[in-house]
Amino acid sequence: MREKLLVLAKATPEISQKYEHLICVAGITDKGEWRRVYPIPWSIFWGSSPLNFKKKMWIEYELESEKPSDHRPESRKIKPATIKPLGEASFNEIEALLFPRITSIEELEAETPKNASIGVVKPTILDFAPTTNQHYEALVTKSAQTTLTGQKAIQLDIPKYKYRYIFKDDQDGRVHECLCEDWEVGELYSNCEDYRKAGKYRDENEVHQKVREKMLKKVTENGPVYFIMGSHYRFNTYMIVGVVYPRKADTRR
Q1: What are the distances in angstroms from CA 92 to CA 56, 60, 76, 135, 207?
Q2: What is the CATH number of the domain that holds 51?
Q3: Contact predicate 25/44, CB 8 Å
Q4: Contact between 70 and 236 (Cβ < 8 Å)
Q5: What is the pLDDT along the chain (253 residues), one digit of tens a residue?
Q6: Do 126 and 233 belong together in one domain?
């Protein structure tokens, strides 16, 4: 069975013992269902890959099975070689799909990941701050190892820091602090860190300042921001897997 998906979340690559380096991809199908699809190897997102796609694009793929592939009802295993990029959606189209699905962290937690492991909130963003990557030292140690073929055990750059949003998702609810795993944030941090190493930024504080400037200020310049929330496979906690916001060009459509 083939399925179409509007990609709303493309999270930072993870290290998987079974599939090596994986990308969490989630969105809404053409049937209006939330979906999380895997395994999607990170090599698909190399510039030369004909399967490369971006957030806010429609893609098509073949399912391994129509049944959930883990305890979360939205999860499906796909055949990654069958991925076909279809084209970018307008922000009006995206908002039309997101608006009737807006929920809150409290509502997602009440549902539990076994019933709703993906959702969208419309946040009032209060702050954006760095947080130490808890697995940094272990992954750096592992990245120094090699496989039987002589390749690095981990071929990805290991970020020393990740980032979290502090926000409210309704007028009366509590303030939330959620880790942001959107790939855009990870790439932005990596690029700014390269500038620091090249001597273009003074120190880590300037790196954090540049990332914060983009993800706290610039994302809100052209309209509303939406957080795509997804639950962790093992811990069942919710994190931000996608930050969806309009670009300046979207306001002219």
Answers
A1: 11, 21, 27, 38, 33
A2: 2.40.50
A3: no
A4: no
A5: 999 999 999 987 765 445 455 678 999 999 999 999 988 887 788 777 889 999 999 999 999 999 988 889 999 999 999 999 999 999 999 999 999 999 999 999 999 888 999 999 999 999 999 987 554 344 334 444 443 444 543 455 676 888 999 999 987 778 999 999 999 999 999 999 999 999 999 999 999 999 999 999 999 999 999 999 998 777 778 999 999 999 988 876 5
A6: yes
**Residues 245, 148 within the same domain:** yes
Residues 126, 236 within the same domain: yes
Interhelix angle 183-197/204-212, nearest 10 degrees? 140
Pairing type for strands 226-231 and 20-22 reads unpaired
Tally of structural domains, the chain: 2
For the whole model, what pTM was predicted? 0.87
Specify whether the CB–CB gap between 75 and 107 falls below 8 A.
no
C-alpha distance across the termini of the chain, in Å: 34
Same domain for 97 and 114: no
